[in-house]
User: Fold this.
Amino acid sequence: MTISAAAVDPLQACPHLEQRDALGRLRWGLETFGEGFALTTSFGIQAAVSLHLISRLDRRVPVIWVDTGYLPPETYAYAEDLMQRLDLQVRVAQSLMSPARMEALHGRLWESGQVEDLETYHRIRKVEPLDRAMTELGVTCWASGVRGRQTDHRSAMQPLERVRGRWALRPLLDWTSRDVFYYMQEHELPQHPLFAQGYSTVGDWHSSGPDDGSSSGRATRFGGLKQECGIHMPGVAGEGI
Assistant:
C-alpha cells in the first residue's frame, strides 16, 4: 500500500534505508510511492547496475532516460543493448529546443569556458527535460545511480532527500567503484564501450574524456569547470516543472 509523498519522514526513512541493500532500497521506493516511483538514467558507465536492479522488482518501474542529443554514438548503442537485454520501460526525456536551434540562439555553450554557459546548457538539455518528464508521468520519487564518492556534493547526500519538489532516492549511495565492477561481473552485464578506452564516467561527447593520469572520474567532465550538471542539485521547488 502506497502512502502520500507528503507523509514521508526522511528522519525515519534514512536510517531504515541505510540498513537495506540497494535492491531493498528500490523495493522500499516502489512499495512507498507505487506508480509515482521512477528511475533515471543516462546510460553511462555504471548505468547497467541500477537498471539491472530495477528489472528485478516484481513490478515494472518507468525508466527516464535524459537524452541531451549530444551523447556519444557508443552510448546510444549501449542503451539499445540494455533496453532489449533487461526489457526496460523507457521514457526518453529531451529538450523542447533542438540542438541546432540551441546552437543558433546561444552558440556552442560548452566551448566558452564559462561556468554560466555550462549551467545554461545543462538547464536546457538536462534539468528542464527531466523535470517535465517527471511531471507528465506523475513522479513523486525518483531513484538514481549516484554514489557518494563521485563528487564533493554527493559525499554529503542522504539516501532520501527532497530535490526540486520531489523525493530523490539513492540506492547506490554507499557503493564503491569496486562494488559496481563486481556486481556487473557477477550478473554478466555488458560494460559501456567507452570503459575499455579509459572512461570512468561519460556524459556528452563534447564534455567527457578518459582518465588521463592527471584527472579521473567526474574531474574529467565539463572541462574541469564543474562536477555537477544540476540534475541532482536542490534548485527551487517547482523550478522547471
User: Anything to note?
Assistant: The chain is about 35% helix and 10% strand. The first strand starts at residue 37 and ends at 41. Confidence is low (pLDDT under 50) at residues 236-241.
